[in-house]
Specification:
The complex is a heterodimer of chains A (about 850) and B (about 425).
Chain A lengths: L3 E6 L2 E6 L4 H7 L23 E7 L18 E3 L4 E2 L10 E3 L3 H16 L15 H9 L18 E2 L4 E3 L9 H9 L5 E4 L6 E4 L11 H6 L5 E3 L12 E6 L8 E9 L5 E9 L12 H6 L14 E4 L2 E4 L2 H14 L4 E5 L5 H13 L3 E4 L6 H7 L15 E5 L3 H4 L1 H13 L2 E6 L11 E4 L5 H6 L10 H8 L4 E5 L6 H17 L9 E4 L6 H6 L8 H7 L2 E5 L3 H4 L1 H9 L2 E6 L4 H4 L3 E4 L8 E4 L4 E5 L12 H12 L8 H11 L8 H4 L29 E2 L26 E5 L24 E4 L1 H6 L7 E6 L2 E9 L7 E5 L10 E7 L4
Parallel strand pairs in A: 1-6, 17-18, 17-24, 19-20, 19-22, 20-21, 22-23, 24-25, 25-26, 30-34, 31-33
Antiparallel strand pairs in A: 1-2, 3-4, 3-5, 3-6, 7-8, 8-11, 9-10, 12-13, 13-14, 15-16, 15-26, 27-28, 28-29, 30-35, 32-33, 32-35
Helix pairs in contact in A: 2-3, 7-20, 8-20, 8-21, 16-18
Chain B lengths: L17 H6 L4 H9 L2 H11 L11 H6 L8 E7 L8 H8 L1 H15 L1 E8 L4 H16 L15 E6 L9 H8 L23 E5 H13 L1 H4 L10 E8 L5 E6 L4 H8 L9 E5 L8 E2 L2 H4 L7 H4 L8 E6 L4 H15 L5 H18 L5 H14 L6 H16 L1 H12 L2
Parallel strand pairs in B: 1-2, 1-4, 2-3, 5-9
Antiparallel strand pairs in B: 5-6, 7-8, 7-9
Helix pairs in contact in B: 2-6, 2-9, 3-6, 5-6, 6-9, 14-15, 14-17, 15-16, 15-17, 16-17, 17-18
The chains are: A alpha/beta (about 850), B alpha/beta (about 425).
Chain lengths: ~850, ~425
C-alpha cells in the first residue's frame, strides 16, 4: 500500500497518498486551487504563480522530533513568510493549507491582473471562449476593471502557424509553457521552445518540418487560453453550441477513448456534423491523450462526399441503384447458390456485433470466415493476452516490457507513449527490431536482428547462453510482470504466426502466462482485429486462390482489390461478389451487389482493443441516408437465407456474443458503460486543471479474461521461421502512421502531413550502390509489378533492404526480392 | 589599509605573472590544503573564518560547502563571475589583475568538496577575461597546479571558463547552471538546492569570484587572522564598488563594518561639486533607496547593520545620488533595466516590470498623473512576495522605497503636468 499523509485544507482534514502536490490534494478534498501552468500529468514548474496559497507546517522539537504544541494542546504551526505555490509544494503530515484568506485572494487577483495587461480582449471571437481557463478564472477571482492603459498594450501576430496543424495566437499566449513541456516530457518530441525573454517571450518551433510530432493536437487541449488552436477547429464553432458524443478511435488497436463535439450547421445544409475530436479520459487506455491521426483523420472519412447512399446491383455489366429489397434478394440468391462454397472476407475495422452476425451468416452458408490481414496470432493473444486487471500504467520497477518487430509509435502511438512512460517509471524495456526506431531511445537493451529472424530472436530469450546478453534474458525471466508487444515490421502471415507462437512460448516457459499484468499484445493493423479473431475470423493462407475458387464472396469492411492487384485478379474469377462498404472501393466496383454501410460515427457497437478491452462507441450523428449498419445488413441477408440474426439492437447481439464466445461471458452494454473514479480528477466544471479532455461518463469498457487465467495452457510448439529471400535486394513491408490508407487520406486536415505518393526508404550506402539520390524517382520491381516510387534515405535502414511502407501505393505482403533503379527519363 | 588582501596587485604590481604570484606565496595555500589537510579540515577552516558569500546573499561559505551531498557524485564547483548587478565592477578587477589568487581559491574550494571539475562562469561581455583566464589556467597546468595527481597526490582538478550570453538572471545561481548546461537561462525551482542538486543534477558549490579570492589567504594565514578584519558577524574585508555622484569612484577594499560616510567622504573624495548627498543605493540597481541621513551615513556596512536601515548590503555596489538627481528618473532607469532583464518565467515579473516601465516612463517624462504614481506603487507591491526568484522582487525595491521615501520627486513631475 502507498503511504498516506493527513493534512488540513481550509479546515477540512483529508488523507491522501504521500507525494501528492497540494493542488492535487485540494482537488480530492473538493477545494479549488486555480492553476495555469500546472498540469496533473506533468512535473510542476511554479511559473504562473496563480496557485499561491498559505501553507503552514507543524513545528517539531529538534531533539525529540515531537510536535510542539500551543497552550491549548493544538500543534504549533510554522507559517511561511510568503505565499507558496501549491503546485510545487508536496503534502506533508500535519500540513495546514489556507486558500480562502484575503492574502490568497489578493494574490490571485494580482496574477490575473498581470496576465490581462498583455491579453487581448477578443473573447467574443476566440475559439477558447466558453471553455477558457483565463476567462473562467478571471470571472471567479480577477479584477473587475483594468488599471492598465489600453495604448500601453503591446500587440503581437495573431496567426502564426506552428506547423501544418497548429496555429499560435501570440497575443493570447500567457507563457505557461504547458505545450513546450508536453512536447518534451510526455511526447518525447522536444520541438517547441520559448525564445526571446521577459515580456517578449514567445513560443516557437525549431523542427523541420515545423512542429514535427504525432502529438501536436494535445497541446491545444491543455493550452489554458486560445493561444493554440487546431487548423480544423479554428473559427469552427463555439463550445456551448456543441454537444459531446462518446466514441472510440478506430484507426489503430489501442482504442483511444474520444469525444466528438457535434452541432447542427447551416454550412452543412442543416445537418448534424462533427466539429472536432477531443480525448476522453481512460487511464487504462489513453489517459487524456490522442495522436494527431486520430484527432485529425479519425472521422472525416465518414463525412466524405463519396459515401455510398444507395444499394447497387450489377445489371447489364453496370452497377445500378436499386431498392434495398431488390439488392437483398439478389445478394441472397447468389449466396444461397454458393452454399458450401462461400467465403466471407471481413476487415478488422468492423465492430464485434458486425463480425458476430457475419460469422453466423457464413456458418449458415457453411462458408469460410476469412480475416483481411497480414498478421497472425489473435488466437494466442486471446489465450495469453493482457486483459482483466492489467494496466500499462501500473508497470514500473521490477517489470519488463519487450517490444519486438514493431515501430511502435508508427503502429500504435498511444502504446508507444505508455511504454515510454513505463520505462521512465523504471520498467526494464527490451527492444528488438531489424532497425532502430524511436522506442529504442528509452530501451535498457536494444537488439538488431536481420529480417526473418523474429521468432528466433524471441526464442533466444529462453536460452541462457544466447548472444543477446544474459542481463536481458534475466530481466525477462525475473520480471514481476512481463508484457510483450509484437508488431507489424517486415512480416507477412507466416512470419507473424511464427513470432506470435514464439512470444506465447516465452510467456509460458518463463511462468508469466496467465498472470495478471503479464501478457502478449499484438500490435494489430486494425482497431478490431482482436474482435475479429474472437468472433471466429481467421487470416487465409493463399487468400487469392481462395477468393478465385469461391462460388460467392461476401466482403465487408475490406478492400482486397484496392490493396493488391493479385487479389483484384482473384476477385474477377469469383463467381458472385457482395460488398458492404462506405465507399465505392476497387472491390465494390467488381461486385455484383453493393450495400451502403453505416460509419461508426452513426451507430453503436463495440471494439476489442489489443489489450483485450472491449469498448463501446455511441452514435454521434444521424446516419447517412439509405445506409445500414453492417450487422443489420448481415441480419437482413440472414432473414432471406433462413438464419435468424438480430437486426436492430447491437446490445442484443452483445448478449448473444457473451453466450457464444467464452472470453466474453458477462460482457453487457450496461457493464461497458460503467465508470469509476479516475485520477487525476479531470473535467467537471473547470478546465484550468487538465484542459479540454473529457471526463469519462459513458464507460471505461470491460477487460476480458484471457484463457490462460482459467488454467494452464501448453506452450505452442517451437515455431519454424518462414522461408524468406536471404540475399539480394529485398523489399520489406513497414508501417507508417501517416500513410495513404482509404480512411486517413479522406481527411483534408491531415493532407499536408501525408505522403504525396508512393515512396521507399533505404540506407544511404545502399542508395549509393544503386546510384540513387534522396528524392530521386525510381522504379521498384516487385512480385511481377513495377511501381514508380520516390527514394528517401534513412540511415536506420539495414543495408540490402528497401523499406516499403504499407498503404502508400505499393502492395507488399511480406519480404520479397525486388529491384530498384532510377526511373527512365529522370 | 596596511595591506591588500584581495586587490593585492595594488601592492604587488605584476602579481598577474605566475612567477611573481609564486614569489609572494602563490599556490602554497593550495599545496598545503592538498598535501597536509583533509578536505573536511579545509571546509572547517573556512567555516571558522566566518567568510560569507560576497555575491549578495551573505550566506556562510563554509556552511555551504559542508552541505554537499556526499552520497551523490561527481561534485562540481562553479565560480560565479557573472557580475551583472548594475554598479558592481569588483570581480572584474580581481580577475583582470589578480587572477591566480582567484583561481587558487577555486582550486582550494574544489579540493574541499571533492570536485575534479570547476567552471568559471562569466558574463558574455567578459570575453576578454575568459581568454585571459584560459591563458592563466594553461599556465597553472604547465606549472603543475592543475591537472592530474596534483602535488604527487591522487587529487586531480581541471578548471574551465564559460561565457554567458548576456542576461542578468544568469547571475542567479540556478539560472547560471541552466545556462552552463546549454539551456535557457531561467531559474530552477528551489529546493532542491545546489549542494544536493546542482550542475547536471549533481551536488555543486557555487561561490562568487570575490568570495573564492578570500580563500587562499584564509588557508595560508588561518581563520583567526582573517577574523581580525571586519565585525564579529561579518568578518573580513569587502570590495565596495563605489559609483554615482562621487569624486573618486572605484573599487575600495575595506573591512566590513566601515561606515558609508567613511567610504563616500574619506575614500571616495566626497560629492562632485560639493553638492549635497541625497540618497544611497547600497546594493546596485536592486537596492532599496536609503535617504542619506546622518544615521544612514554612520551605519556600518555589514550584513546586519544595513538591513536595519531598510536596505541590504548585497554585493556592496554603492551608488551615490546627490541633490541634482530626480528619484523618479532614477526609478525609471532601474525599472528599464529590470524590464529588459526579466527572464519571463513568472507572471508577476514578466508582466509587472513591463507595466512599471510604462508607468515610470509616463511619470518621468512629465506625462503622468497623480493616479499613475499610486498605480505604480501598487503594482510594485503586487509583484512583491509572488515572484519565482528573488530577482523579480529586486525590480520593485527602488520603486517602493523611492515612492515611500522620496514621494515629492514624483509629485513634482505629475503636478507640473496637472497644472497645465
Amino acid at each position: 500500500m502507498t503511504d498516506t499523509v493527513t493534512l488540513t485544507i481550509d479546515g477540512q482534514q483529508i488523507t491522501v497518498p504521500a507525494g501528492l502536490t497540494v493542488v492535487d490534494a485540494a482537488r480530492r478534498a473538493g477545494v479549488e486551487i486555480p492553476v495555469f501552468c500546472y498540469h496533473p500529468k506533468m512535473e510542476p514548474v511554479g511559473m504562473c504563480r496563480m496557485c499561491l496559497v498559505e501553507i503552514g507546517r507543524p513545528m517539531r522539537d529538534r531533539a525529540t522530533g515531537e510536535f510542539l504544541r500551543e497552550e491549548d494542546g493544538s500543534v504549533k504551526i510554522q507559517w511561511g513568510r510568503k505565499l507558496e505555490t501549491a503546485c510545487t509544494a508536496r503534502v506533508s503530515e500535519g500540513m495546514v493549507v489556507r486558500t480562502t484568506t484575503e492574502q490568497v485572494a489578493e494574490a490571485r487577483k494580482s496574477v490575473l491582473e498581470f496576465l490581462l495587461t498583455s491579453h487581448p480582449l477578443d473573447c467574443p471571437v476566440c475559439d477558447k471562449g466558453g471553455e477558457c481557463s483565463l476567462q473562467n478564472l478571471t470571472v471567479a477571482y480577477g479584477p473587475e476593471t483594468t488599471r492598465f492603459y489600453y495604448e500601453d498594450k503591446e500587440h503581437a501576430p495573431k496567426h502564426v502557424p506552428l506547423g501544418d496543424l497548429i496555429i499560435l495566437d501570440r497575443e493570447r499566449c500567457i507563457k505557461c509553457g504547458r505545450c513546450i513541456r508536453f512536447q518534451s516530457e510526455i511526447a518525447g518530441d522536444p520541438v517547441l521552445t520559448f525564445y526571446q525573454r521577459g515580456h517578449h517571450t514567445d513560443v516557437t518551433t525549431f523542427s523541420d518540418p515545423p512542429f514535427d510530432s504525432y502529438w501536436s493536437g494535445n497541446t491545444t487541449d491543455i493550452c489554458p487560453v486560445g493561444a493554440l488552436t487546431t487548423v480544423d477547429f479554428r473559427f469552427g464553432a463555439r463550445p456551448w453550441e456543441m454537444r459531446p458524443a462518446a466514441s472510440i478511435c478506430t484507426l489503430c488497436p489501442v482504442g483511444c477513448n474520444i469525444t466528438f463535439n457535434v452541432r447542427r450547421e447551416a454550412a452543412a445544409g442543416g445537418k448534424m456534423v462533427i466539429k472536432r475530436v477531443l480525448p476522453r479520459q481512460n487511464e487504462q487506455v489513453n489517459e487524456i491523450w490522442v495522436c494527431d491521426k486520430g484527432r485529425f483523420a479519425g472521422y472525416h472519412f465518414a463525412e466524405s462526399e463519396d459515401r455510398l447512399t444507395q444499394p447497387l446491383v450489377r445489371k447489364h455489366g453496370e452497377l445500378t441503384p436499386v431498392s434495398w429489397e431488390e439488392a437483398l434478394e439478389t445478394a441472397a440468391r447468389g449466396l444461397e447458390a454458393a452454399r458450401g462454397k462461400a467465403l466471407t472476407l471481413a476487415g478488422g475495422r468492423l465492430s464485434n456485433e458486425d463480425l458476430f452476425n457475419l460469422a453466423r451468416l457464413t456458418d449458415a452458408l457453411d462458408g469460410v470466415k476469412a480475416l483481411d490481414t497480414f498478421m497472425a496470432g489473435g488466437d494466442l493473444t486471446a489465450q495469453f493476452g493482457l486483459g482483466e486487471g492489467s494496466n500499462l500504467a501500473d508497470l514500473g520497477k521490477g517489470d519488463t516490457i519487450v517490444v519486438i518487430a514493431s515501430d511502435l509509435e508508427e503502429e500504435a502511438p498511444l502504446w508507444w507513449l505508455r511504454v515510454k512512460q513505463a520505462s521512465e517509471r523504471g520498467a526494464t524495456l527490451i527492444v528488438a527490431n531489424p532497425r532502430f526506431t524511436k522506442i529504442e531511445r528509452y530501451a535498457d537493451y536494444a537488439f538488431l536482428y536481420p529480417y526473418g529472424r523474429e521468432a528466433e530472436t524471441v526464442c533466444a530469450f529462453l536460452d541462457e547462453g544466447c548472444s543477446c546478453g544474459g542481463e536481458a534474458v534475466q530481466a525477462v525471466a525475473d520480471a514481476d510482470r512481463l508484457v510483450v508487444f509484437y508488431g507489424q515490421e517486415g512480416m507477412g502471415l507466416a512470419g507473424s504466426r511464427a513470432l506470435a507462437a514464439a512470444v506465447a512460448r516465452l510467456l509460458v516457459k518463463t511462468g508469466h502466462a496467465g498472470k495478471v499484468g503479464s501478457g502478449m499484445v499484438g500490435v494489430w493493423p486494425r482497431a478490431n482485429d482482436q474482435g475479429a479473431w474472437d468472433m471466429g475470423f481467421r487470416p487465409q493462407n493463399g487468400l487469392a486462390a481462395a477468393l478465385a475458387a469461391a462460388q460467392a464472396v461476401l466482403v465487408a469492411g475490406a478492400d482486397p482489390a484496392g490493396d493488391d492487384p493479385a487479389l483484384a485478379a482473384a476477385l474477377d474469377k469469383a463467381n458472385f461478389v457482395v460488398v458492404q462498404e462506405l465507399f465505392l472501393t476497387e472491390t465494390a466496383r467488381k461486385a455484383d451487389v453493393v450495400f451502403p454501410a453505416q460509419a461508426f460515427t452513426e451507430r453503436s457497437g463495440t471494439y476489442t482493443n489489443g489489450e483485450l478491452r472491449v469498448q463501446r462507441f455511441y452514435p454521434a450523428v444521424p446516419a447517412a441516408p439509405e445506409t445500414a449498419p453492417d450487422f443489420a445488413i448481415a441480419a437482413r441477408l440472414g432473414e432471406r437465407l433462413g438464419v435468424a440474426l438480430e437486426a436492430n439492437s447491437p446490445a442484443a447481439i452483445m448478449r448473444q456474443i457473451a453466450e457464444a464466445v467464452p472470453n466474453y461471458a458477462g460482457v453487457t452494454y450496461e457493464a461497458l458503460a460503467e465508470v469509476s473514479e479516475q485520477y487525476p480528477l479531470i473535467g467537471r466544471d473547470d478546465l484550468y486543471y487538465s484542459g479540454a479532455a473529457y471526463e469519462n461518463t459513458q464507460g471505461l469498457g470491460v477487460a476480458l479474461k484471457p484463457a490462460a487465467r482459467e488454467g494452464d495452457i501448453a506452450a505452442p510448439e517451437a515455431p519454424t521461421a518462414p522461408e524468406i529471400p536471404a540475399d539480394g535486394l529485398r523489399a520489406v513491408p513497414v508501417t507508417r502512421l501517416y500513410d495513404r490508407g482509404a480512411l486517413v487520406s479522406r481527411s483534408a486536415t491531415l493532407q499536408p502531413r501525408l505522403p504525396v505518393g508512393a515512396f521507399v526508404a533505404l540506407h544511404p550506402a545502399e542508395a549509393q550502390r544503386l546510384g540513387l539520390e534522396d528524392g530521386a524517382t525510381a522504379t521498384l520491381e516487385l512480385n511481377g509489378g513495377a511501381y514508380a516510387v520516390t527514394v528517401r534515405l534513412n540511415p536506420q535502414a539495414p543495408e540490402g533492404v528497401v523499406l516499403v511502407p504499407r498503404s502508400v501505393g505499393v502492395p507488399v505482403v511480406e519480404v520479397a526480392s525486388c529491384e530498384l533503379r532510377l526511373a527512365v527519363g529522370d | 589599509m596596511a595591506e591588500y588582501i584581495l586587490l593585492r596587485h595594488r601592492d604587488i604590481p605584476n602579481i598577474k605573472d605566475i612567477g611573481v604570484y609564486q614569489e609572494h606565496g602563490g599556490f602554497e595555500a593550495f599545496r598545503k590544503a592538498v598535501t597536509e589537510m583533509a578536505p573536511g579540515d579545509v571546509t572547517a577552516e573556512v567555516k571558522k573564518s566566518g567568510l560569507r558569500g560576497r555575491g549578495g546573499a551573505g550566506f556562510p561559505t563554509g556552511m555551504k560547502w559542508a552541505f554537499m551531498d556526499n552520497r551523490n557524485w561527481p561534485h562540481y564547483v562553479i565560480a560565479n563571475g557573472d557580475e551583472s548587478e548594475p554598479g558592481t565592477f569588483k570581480d572584474r578587477e580581481i580577475m583582470e589583475h589578480n587572477p591566480f589568487q582567484f583561481l587558487e581559491g577555486v582550486a582550494i574550494a574544489s579540493y574541499a568538496v571533492g570536485a575534479n571539475r570547476a567552471y568559471v562562469y562569466l558574463r558574455g561581455e567578459f570575453w576578454h577575461i575568459a581568454k585571459w583566464l584560459d591563458q592563466k589556467i594553461a599556465e597553472m597546468e604547465a606549472a603543475g597546479f592543475l591537472g592530474d595527481n596534483l602535488f604527487g597526490t591522487d587529487y586531480s582538478l581541471r578548471i574551465y571558463t564559460h561565457l554567458g550570453a548576456g542576461a542578468y538572471i544568469c547571475g542567479e545561481e540556478t539560472a547560471l547552471m541552466e545556462s552552463l548546461e546549454g539551456k535557457r537561462g531561467q531559474p530552477r525551482l528551489r529546493p532542491p538546492f545546489p549542494p544536493s542538486y546542482g550542475l547536471y543534477g549533481k551536488p555543486t558549490v557555487i561561490n562568487n569570484v570575490e568570495t573564492l579570492t578570500n580563500v587562499p589567504m584564509i588557508i595560508a594565514r588561518g581563520a583567526d587572522w582573517y577574523r581580525t578584519y571586519g565585525t564579529e558577524k561579518s568578518p573580513g574585508v569587502k570590495l565596495f564598488s563605489l559609483s554615482g555622484r562621487v569624486n573618486k569612484p572605484g573599487n575600495y577594499e575595506l573591512p566590513l563594518g566601515t561606515t558609508f560616510r567613511e567610504l563616500i567622504f574619506e575614500h571616495g573624495g566626497g560629492i562632485i561639486d560639493g553638492k549635497k548627498i541625497k540618497a544611497i543605493m547600497p546594493a546596485g540597481a536592486s537596492s532599496s533607496l536609503l535617504p542619506a541621513t546622518d544615521e544612514v551615513l554612520d551605519t556600518p556596512m555589514d550584513y546586519e547593520s544595513v538591513p536595519k536601515m531598510g536596505g541590504m548590503l548585497g554585493s556592496a555596489s554603492v551608488i551615490v545620488l546627490d541633490e541634482t538627481v530626480s528619484i523618479a528618473w532614477l526609478v525609471k532607469k532601474t525599472v528599464n533595466f529590470f524590464r529588459h532583464e526579466s527572464c519571463g518565467k513568472c507572471t508577476p515579473c514578466r508582466e509587472g516590470t513591463y507595466w512599471m516601465e510604462r508607468l515610470t516612463g509616463r511619470i518621468a517624462s512629465g506625462e503622468g498623473a497623480l493616479q499613475d504614481v499610486e498605480t505604480l506603487y501598487s503594482v510594485a507591491k503586487q509583484i512583491q512576495g509572488k515572484t519565482f526568484c528573488p530577482l523579480g522582487e529586486f525590480s520593485t525595491m527602488a520603486v517602493v522605497t523611492g515612492i515611500e521615501r522620496f514621494r515629492e520627486d514624483f509629485d513634482a513631475l505629475v503636478k507640473a503636468e496637472a497644472s497645465e
